[in-house]
Design a protein that fits this description.
Blueprint: E1 19-20, H1 23-37, E2 47-54, E3 58-64, H2 68-83
Antiparallel strand pairs: 1-2, 2-3
Length: about 80
C-alpha cells in the first residue's frame, strides 16, 4: 500500500476519490463475512461482503448468491441486525 511505503499519490489523482485502505477495514469486512457464513463452509462461496471507504463515502455491499429460498435466512439476519 502506498501509505505504508510513504509514496505520494499520482499528480493527477483526485484526492477526494482515493480509497482508504487499512487493516481495520479489512478486519471489519472479514468479520461481517464470517458472521454471515456462521461456520458453514458450504456457504463461503455464496456470500461476498465488500467494504470500501474513500474520503467522501463508505460503500458496504452484501452479495448473497442463490435462490430466494437459499438466501432468505441470510437476508433476514442482515435486516434484523440493522433494524435493532
Amino acid at each position: 500500500m502506498k501509505s505504508q511505503s510513504n509514496q505520494q499519490p499520482k499528480p493527477k489523482a483526485r484526492i477526494a476519490d482515493m480509497r482508504i485502505m487499512n487493516e481495520d477495514i479489512d478486519r471489519m469486512q472479514e468479520d461481517m463475512q464470517k458472521s454471515l457464513i456462521n461456520g458453514d463452509d458450504s456457504k463461503a462461496k455464496s456470500i461476498n461482503v465488500k467494504l470500501i471507504r474513500s474520503r467522501s463515502q463508505t460503500k458496504l455491499t452484501f452479495m448473497l448468491k442463490g435462490t430466494l429460498e437459499e438466501t432468505e435466512d441470510r437476508l433476514q439476519k442482515i435486516y434484523n441486525a440493522l433494524k435493532n
